[in-house]
## 1
Amino acid sequence: MNAIIPIDVLIIGGGPAGLAAALAAKAAGADDILILERENELGGILRQCIHTGFGLHIFKEELTGPEYAARYIAEVHAQGIPSQCDTMVIDITSDRLVTCVSAAHGLQRFQAGAIVLAMGCRERPRGALGIPGARSSGIYSAGTAQRFVNLDGYLPGRRVVILGSGDIGLIMARRLTFAGIKVEAVVELMPYSSGLKRNIVQCLDDFDIPLMLSHTVTAIHGKGRLTGVTISKVDADLSPIPGSERHIPCDTLLLSVGLIPENELSRNAGVDLDATTGGPVVDNRLQTSVPGIFACGNVLHVHDLVDHVSVEAAEAGRQAALAAVGRSLVAAESAVAVRAGDGVRGIVPQRINSETLTTTPVKLMFRPSSVRRNAVLVVEADGVPVHRVKKRILTPGEMVELSIKPDFFAAAKPVRELCIRCENS
Amino acid sequence: MYDIVIIGGGVIGCAIARELKRWRLKVALCERSDDVGAGASKANSAIVHPGHSAKPGTDMARLNVVGNQLYDQLCQELDITFQRCGSLTVAFDEDELPALESVYQDGLANGVPGMRLIDRDELLRREPNLNPEAVAALFAPTGGIVCPYELTVGLAENAAINGVDVFLNTKAVQVKRNASGWTVCTGQGDFDCAAVVNAAGLYADIFNNQVSTDTMRIIPRRGEYWMIDKSFDGAFRSTIFQLPGKMGKGVLVSPTVDGTIIVGPNAEDIDDRDDNTTTRAGLEYVYQAASRIWPALPRRALITNFAGNRAHLVRHDFVLGEAPGAPGFFNAAGIESPGLTAAPAIARELSAAIAEYLHASPNAEFQPCRPPVRRFRTMTMAERAAAIAENPAYGRIICRCEQVTEAEIRDCIRRPVGARSVDGVKRRTRAGMGRCQGGFCMPRVVAILSEELGVSPLQITKNGGNSIILTAKLEAVSREREAEA
Ligand SMILES: Cc1cc2nc3c(=O)[nH]c(=O)nc-3n(C[C@H](O)[C@H](O)[C@H](O)COP(=O)(O)OP(=O)(O)OC[C@H]3O[C@@H](n4cnc5c(N)ncnc54)[C@H](O)[C@@H]3O)c2cc1C
Ligand SMILES: Cc1cc2nc3c(=O)[nH]c(=O)nc-3n(C[C@H](O)[C@H](O)[C@H](O)COP(=O)(O)OP(=O)(O)OC[C@H]3O[C@@H](n4cnc5c(N)ncnc54)[C@H](O)[C@@H]3O)c2cc1C
């Protein structure tokens, strides 16, 4: 076996998160950086997102996914940051020993000063939903279908039903329509869509594709290829209502029913995971519970917009560089716990350094647990409300950012727990 | 002209095919699907039963116990994972104790070795995740687990190495007598032979009834299952059975050789033998019934569900041997549970009878072993490094959940009776069986299959027939639309 290779900052995943982290690590003074990517090119999921809608915040223009990625990739090359594609990381230990394999280099092991987890997320499969029925072909997760169409150049079917109104499903509804495929309906279990409003308008409404809220697929038909699905209306408890069944003939069912952070490696590394986000628990420096291991992008929590990923990842990369170069691996000892109260889900970061809290603004990201109009977000410090923000509309499809400022905490009393909750105004 | 034509490439047909090659016989096997093991043999509980649950005096009981004993050697020869994890039949209240005792007595009568009744303390020490209401259990150390489709593929491959001609996509329609023996008419032509083995699973009654006066009727009896994610590996050490009774026939919870947990089955008689759909009601029943064993059964960790159909006969025993009034036509029918366990014993017994019927001489060239399958997943780091150095395709991971490499996928297609479809690859390598259920690897597996088989990706199927994956090339559709416009 090859010798163990020492490295300052090792970045796992060459998607937008990994790329931005690498650039920021370089800017913060790290020289010995390597990006490991399992695909044959850098760019992550953006490679297959050929639609526009990327970069509005960062570049103030509407780019396609590959264009957005290309800007970062060019910069990574310009900065001379090395990357190794076709390389799958298969293990990370809590001592930051990273094992990966590739056809070109065989099995390699790296001893990293700091690690940035940037592996992105994966789609929830059919089985996880437990939809009963036949085991027909023609059932794909929306991202798999997107890959077939946009990277491989093949169409997955002729007549499609999409279950779940996540963004990938919405984008695919339009993509397939452009390709001459009939999209019968987008079926959504919840009374609201989990996708971005603009995608509902631009991908469904503009093409008269019905969005059937509070509906779900209750049976799958077809012995070989799919021949149709049964959909049913659901009640307030999300249970199918008997008698509401309707058959839709189709040869393809796409699932856009949620994304889960790629957490196998995080788990191997012994990183604490958050049951709600599915990603690691991090502090305000984006450091996980294992000192020297940082996380950002969709592996940390599923983002709506790549621009936010890039911003978050830059911070992770910077912190990783500081940790690796300054050899200052500090655990987050005196940390303030951040808790999601009523109406709020999946806050990141989950811990804030107590000193930081009283000296620097900290950005929290989370989602409301349901659609709310005229809501108020309340920040509580140890049970005492310290700040309130009015929000005209909150929907689970759009991540909320909330800045926690030092002046919320006028009193000298140290805070132990912050809670964010949502109430009606 | 064959000595023997076997109808059906399930675990039974494949085991018989292999065993027949211990004699100098010319053997063909016809399977209607595009792969072996695509029937009940791929969709069952995967338990190698100890043998206490079959009625004493039946063939089922006898062949179960013998079959169980043959597993160690068979799986070693074929390089198949087999674990004697033991089984526990659990009584969950005092009322069930007499039933537990009677299972124990049946086990003794059937000659099941090493059984022991254990008390609640020992039980909960062995299985801390078990419902604490459990009162006692029967421990059977010979109980085991195996991967049933891996076994079937291994048997078929080894049979083929020994000279059995395996005809896939070949559906038998009619068995007729001819001047010297039998003709098996299939969709791909007629096969003449001296003897026929009817191992057609759910369809075995059709062929029996074509030739024998002793007719039978197979009732498809569906069983549904849930699979639990590998992150719960270790939640149970042994297979946990319930006693038949209040909650129906008893849903089991068992570890699998792959580190997942299987829960099921229910039992429901259905009309369509090929209907392997799962139902909301059935799955919910399975979940509830399994919760009796495992109260903390995690809904979040359910990764998939499936159904398999038992070839049930009212008499509820195997039908083995020459059919009355049809010399040279050998049945292996009504092979419901514990058919997987009994398969090696059934094959041994039946092939001996056939060899005797055909006055066959022993085959000194019989090769019982299958070349080992190298699995990246189970290699040590040093072995991995060596494997990649030797063949770089071991360095390309195609299925990230189960860590299956390109080398393994190509190998499973190239082997005798190799994979021809996405499901075929999945059953042989586990690519696509993990928690993402193929979301990541399916496009890659399609590409490799298309390359290896030398066909367009448009021709690659999920499991043969019309189960295509892709419908058109993108340019083709765009051109069509331009033409229309
Ligand atoms: C269909 C779709 C539409 C979208 N539309 C928009 C939009 O309109 N606007 C917008 O702003 N955002 C959009 N997004 C979101 C945006 O693409 C994501 O937020 C962003 O790609 C996340 O970046 P990431 O780097 O965290 O993950 P990814 O892009 O998924 O990158 C992770 C990388 O890690 C690699 N990797 C994973 N595991 C390993 C391993 N073990 N070893 C080596 N490498 C590994 C992967 O191959 C991948 O390249 C969309 C996303 C999708 C899927
Ligand atoms: C729900 C369930 C749970 C079970 N659990 C267990 C268990 O835990 N332990 C155990 O020991 N046993 C178990 N069994 C029993 C075991 O699975 C079966 O006994 C065994 O798989 C039967 O194998 P077979 O080859 O007879 O049938 P099959 O596997 O069904 O094979 C028959 C083959 O014949 C083919 N065929 C059919 N018609 C034709 C035709 N006209 N021409 C050509 N080919 C044809 C089919 O395609 C099929 O491949 C279970 C069974 C079920 C259904």
## 2
Amino acid sequence: MKFRTIGYYFKQAFKSMRRNFWMSVAAVSTVAIAAFLVGIFALLVTNVNFMATKLESDIEVVAFVEVDVPRSEVLQLEEQIRSLPGIASVTLVPKEQGLEQMYARYGRDRDLLGALGGDNPLPDYFVVKAREPDRVGRIAGQLAQIPQIYKVDYGQQEVERLFQVLGWVRWAGSALILLLVGAAVFLIATTVRLTVFARRRELQIMKLVGASDWFIRWPFFLEGFFLGAFGAALACLALYFGYFSLLDQVTTNISFLALVTDRAAVYEILWKLLAGGAAVGALGSIISMRRFLKV
Amino acid sequence: MIQFVNVSKIYNNKVVALRDINIKIEKGEFVFLIGSSGAGKSTFVRLIFKEEEPSRGQILIANRSINRLKKKDVSILRRNIGVVFQDYSLLNDRSVYDNVAFALEVMEYPGKIIRQRVPEVLEMVGLAGKADCLPTQLSGGEQQRAAIARAIVNGPQILLADEPTGNLDPDTAWGIMEILNDINRRGTTVIMATHAVDIVNKMRKRLIALERGEVVRDEERGVYKDEV
Ligand SMILES: Nc1ncnc2c1ncn2[C@@H]1O[C@H](COP(=O)(O)OP(=O)(O)O)[C@@H](O)[C@H]1O
Ligand SMILES: [Mg+2]
């Protein structure tokens, strides 16, 4: 490619887009929608991974004791747990304290205990801290072995559930995105094809006077490329403003929800989307050229 | 310069357009390719600039077979061959100047050379005053001149003209012939397909007569005879 002809390629590419205006709009919109969904999905995955990392590095395990175990036995249990290897600390949260916490949350004036039939139905539980995150799984397993303990909760277990759900979302999302990307490629190929037909006489003469193949191809290639890139750019814009305003809302209102606030991570996703859109566009024009541009 | 060696062209595996052609055309020659409609003249011309491929045989240009040229070399070959069609093949959405400049743009010439060459060649074919006209605003003869200008603007060594006077009245046709003759005198090999009897007879150039795809005559300074 010679430098002085680049201007010619760009001019031709934009001329075609103006000529096939509505077709170009359709192609750009399809790419934009596909890229938008891919973007949402990518942000979702990134955030889930982010939360998972937080949960996975959480060293706390909560072990619930059966309700009918007497206090003396519970205190014995505390000693037993403390003697397990890799334990940093064990804190017993007795059921009375649990009830206090509930009163604190819902107000003392309500007769909670009465409503529950006079007996405190809450279990005693232990908050066990491991010394290292990689010990959490083993400690949880050992706690679950203890007959008086009926349930063990810990972050890594949450992570597994999270990823199970994410697996399904990923599956359905991929199918939808594949469909949309296919539609985008098809629409871009059709748009480029219209240009090939509109200019077939010119192309024929170009070939005749000895234009090189790539001299003929470049404008079509660029047309597809720009349609794809432009669609993706629209999606990126929407995602950028959408995500960061969502982030504002979430951090002020639901502060416990840990979202990715690192701009670089978000920018990376947007960059990749833009490149992907351009690639989809280029693919569409290559398909169209192979089929309709006999050079 | 151009040599056909046992060349046959069969379209769609049935229509024999050219049969076993052996012809040698030297550099700088002016050759008339005559024959009635369907004799194979256009096919002959199209084989030279590889718009069609021969079914059998070899075509050599400058002693090199062009049968198996790479795509890149095809475009280089075409840059050395100017082609003028009966239907002019001008682009009606741009001026005469732009039509001629288009050929140089497509061949990736620098703008400076384009701005210099295009007026020169328009002057040569007598269209200097019509540079800004659209092809549709020109007469048939003028359109043909524009097509010739486009074909020779980069100074090709070979000029192919397929019935360039076909649609023109005799006076206009002679004007075109003068231009082609002029181009030939400057050293370009010219091959012109035609069935214009009086032109061929007056010009007295080499004449290759085709009939149903075969060469039936090949004479220096030949005249058109209508065999019955
Ligand atoms: N593209 C083509 N496909 C099939 N047959 C063709 C094609 N071009 C020409 N022919 C046939 O080949 C023969 C020679 O045609 P052509 O070379 O155009 O002759 P001329 O130019 O002398 O009139 C004719 O019978 C014509 O019908
Ligand atoms: Mg013909």
